[in-house]
Amino acid sequence: MLRQRGFTLVELMIALTVFAVMATLVAPGAAEMIARRKVQEAAQSIMDGLAQARTEALRRNASVRFSLRADGIGWNVTQVGSGDTLRAYSNADWGSLQLASAGSAVSATFLPTGVLATGTQLSQLTVSSHAAQSASRRVNVYGGGMMRMCDPAIAVADDPRRC
User: Fold this and answer.
1) Contact status, residue 150 vs residue 131, Cβ threshold 8 Å
2) Do 54 and 114 contact (CB within 8 A), yes or no?
3) Contact partners, residue 96, CB within 8 Å, separation at least 6
4) Residue 155, in any domain of the structure
5) CB atoms within 10 A of CB 5
6) In what order do the strands lie in the sheet with 136-141?
7) What is the pTM (predicted TM-score) of this model?
8) pLDDT tens digit string along 10-45?
9) What is the residue range of 65's domain?
């Protein structure tokens, strides 16, 4: 007696139907999760760039500027006196994000002491996504050179992630 192995066409169609239904249910949540992750990564990258600029200003004993790129997909850290680019960052994923600064400032200059130079400086930058309205992060830069990332959507008073 010959024994058959494998799946019948009906079993295969049922399995594919179940898979398609599950994929349809998971897809919207996955897209929102990816959008939130992109926002978080962009805000963290901006924090890293600001920290790098401040550290380089202290290390070099010279003014160093952090600036957002004009094309909106990255940032640069440059030494003010020489114009040397100390670090550049670019990520094409930023094309799907919105970067909004308080005022029109797109750069922050750190003095050799690590504090912000006076004048129009980048003091607050909000990173948000077109795909998920709830996904946003705010990066605050304070005059003393300190930086903080927070979530504007959090309203609980004692939550440390709150702005």
Assistant:
1) no
2) yes
3) 35, 38, 129, 130, 131
4) no
5) 4
6) 97-101, 124-129, 136-141, 147-150
7) 0.80
8) 888 898 898 888 877 777 777 788 888 899 999 999
9) 9-150
